[in-house]
Amino acid sequence: MSTRKARNRQSQASAAAQPSDYDSDILNSFSINGATSFSGQRTNPELNLSVLQRHLPSTTSIVSIAPYAVVYTFSVSSQNWEKSGIEGTLFVCQQSSLGNAERYAVVVLNRKGLNDFICPLSGDVDFEAGYIILKSTEADGEESICGLWIFEEEEGTSTAGLREMNAKIIQRCASRAAAFIGA
Q: pTM (2 decimals)?
């Protein structure tokens, strides 16, 4: 008679691997005798891109990443900046083109809730007092102003200069997208 532990190990060993519910994992898996195994050979950029494509399917590549950013919104009525409750990793993404038009977006995957920040870039970007200011027009015609604050440490660290570097990248991508909008 086998012990309960031995029976448990046998049943666990014979159980087939559970399939993943993520489409991106299926692409990196292989099957042997009906059991699915995962290769585990994806790099961080590949993983980041697959996650972003779940949130914004038109994403084709990641232009830049900032490990931590906070999104602020400007209240026209109170003339103040207010925290939006969105903070997390910031991605500057290139999206699939529409005709000849290049498209870019800024995405902040929220660590504090389920609502992420996704802002298509269209040209109106400023960098003032350490904040990246994005202006856009909502579907209802209302102008929206958002500020992005990106965490950075002092010189000599991996995040030194990250705020200004990302501001320049976002401005360049917005200019490229706007060039096609105005054309």
A: 0.74
pLDDT for the residue numbered 167: 94
Residues lower than pLDDT 50 in the chain: 1-3, 6-21, 23-24, 28-31, 183
Distance between CA atoms of 65 and 22, rounded to whole angstroms? 23
Distance CA 148, CA 131 (A): 5
What DSSP letter does each residue of 109-123 carry, written as one string?
Answer: EESSSSPPEEEE--S
- Which residue(s) pair with 88 in the sheet? 69, 110
- Give the DSSP H/E element, type plus range, for residue 59: strand 59-75
Locate 161 and state its tokens.
């200069």
Cα(49)–Cα(154) distance, integer angstroms: 29
Q: Could you say which DSSP state residue 49 is in? A: H
181 touches 120 (CB < 8 A): no
- Residue-by-residue DSSP string for 72-127: EEEETTTTEEEEEEEEEEEEEEEEEEETTEEEEEEEEEESSSSPPEEEE--S-EEE
Cα 160 to chain centroid distance, Å, stands at 21
Is 171 strand, coil or helix?
helix
| Contact in structure between 64 and 162 (CB atoms under 8 Å) | no
